[in-house]
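Risk register update: the risk of archive-format incompatibility is retired. Evidence:
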Amino acid sequence: MPESTTDWISAVANSVVAVGLLLVWLQVRIAAKGLAVSQQALAAVIEQLSLQRSSIEQVTTQVNLAKSAYADSHELERRKTAIQLIKDWVDFLHKNGTGAKAFAETLDFQKTKLLWQEKQLDIPLNLKAYLEKTVPSIGVIQTVNESTARLTEPQSSLIRREAVSYLNTIETVLAARRHGIADAEMLEEQFANLVVPSDGKQILVQLRNIAGGVSAFPSIEEFVREIEQKKVTFSKKAKLGSAA
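Archived output:
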């Protein structure tokens, strides 16, 4: 093969190799640039995510602060409501007293039923003076004999009405406690002394049962059970401690 031909082939071959190398170099450059662009895009995304995370944390902090402020405000309102209910209760007692309620608690089931039905009712004579003193609007109670007095139907109706008003007032207060409208602890402090298991005090339990029990006075029913359980548990613990 002539030398000129060989040189020409070599030149073409070298040119092809050079072009190939150039193409490889260009691909490498393009890939490098693409990688740089990808890295920049990734960095931008990471920065954006960081900003979003910071914003979310700020919003979360604000929400938590708002929730805390709402809870504090709600608790304050519940305490105010409890104080107002206690005041209303004191006003009720000052106006009506507890004579009718205390009398009703002395009756057995049959006499309580007669009272609920507003019927004539014979009572021990020693309760005559007590009722005339503590329930002035009852007037003079008839004396039957040396051991018995008698309530007329209007007098029986009056005592029933006052005893039911007593129950309704307590039910209103304890309903606010049961439904979280008023501070439960404050109301428990004021009303727990009305429930004394050892003395059988259960807030006119016989009258409540005749009136409908839990359906008529659900909040009183629940409160009595709760306080009885606490006091019975406390009594058992106290006895255990004494024995030790």
